[in-house]
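Exam review. A common question shows you a sequence with its structure tokens and asks you to describe the fold in words. Practice with the pair below. Do the first one on your own.
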Amino acid sequence: MGGCASKDKAKTETPGVNGSNTPAPATNEDDVKSEETMVDAAVLEKLEAGFAKLAASDSKSLLKKFLTKEVFDNLKTKKTPTFGSTLLDVIQSGLENHDSGVGIYAPDAEAYTVFADLFDPIIEDYHGGFKKTDKHPPKDWGDVDTLGNLDPAGEYIISTRVRCGRSMQGYPFNPCLTEAQYKEMEDKVSSTLSGLEGELKGQFYPLTGMTKEVQQKLIDDHFLFKEGDRFLQ
């Protein structure tokens, strides 16, 4: 992965919070919605060609289902204000892989608002009617201090795992991350995790320099994703 599809040319840095080069996010929804700047002609050309091929295909993806000509024309000139992500960054995977089930990826957090005309109906369809006005129900973990052994005889539970994924503020999402940004994020995360002690202390595995044996063990233990997901290329 080499960054946004629409960022082939040199990028300029946007001054951010406290004078840093980390862009500051839009302050409110109106700022995001009103953002509409010139999209590069080469990007528009790729979008038009990709949309024509998708429309003529027998793709069953949610992208094709909801990317009507009206929606396409409304979104093709829009960009997210902080990272400048375009519609091409959102739908490139679905344009290149007509057998996708969904066909879109959010390149940054603002994309959900800027390209809401596409994201909202796809999310609603994928999640069986979860509309943009719906809310996640309140959390109720019960009394975690009195949680007993769920399988005292060891007859049913083989293993348990709690896994979470988070994005880092000040960076775009995976489709638009550059190699330099990945390295910068790795340095920040590894430095922070190395300071943990006690039951929180663990081992950090950098992806670069990892032996095949360690890589396979982490895959077998479900800590590491397999390579070769063409939908993310």
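Now try the second one, then compare your answer with the model answer below.
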Amino acid sequence: MAYGWLGESRTPFVGLPGNPVAVMVTFLQFVAPLLDRLHGQPMSPPRRLHAIADHLLKAA
């Protein structure tokens, strides 16, 4: 992950990883709360998703 400001206008920049799952996790954990704060919104609680697998999952 990278963050900073671009150019003289100081445009905020956030660079995310390339893996689609890593992008989603990084966005939800870091970027979404940052955007809330930049827009003057209170931080929202983390989203929880419940899922049921249709097959057994083995530990690695």
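Model answer, second protein: The radius of gyration is 16 Å. The helical segments are 20-38. Full marks require stating both points clearly.
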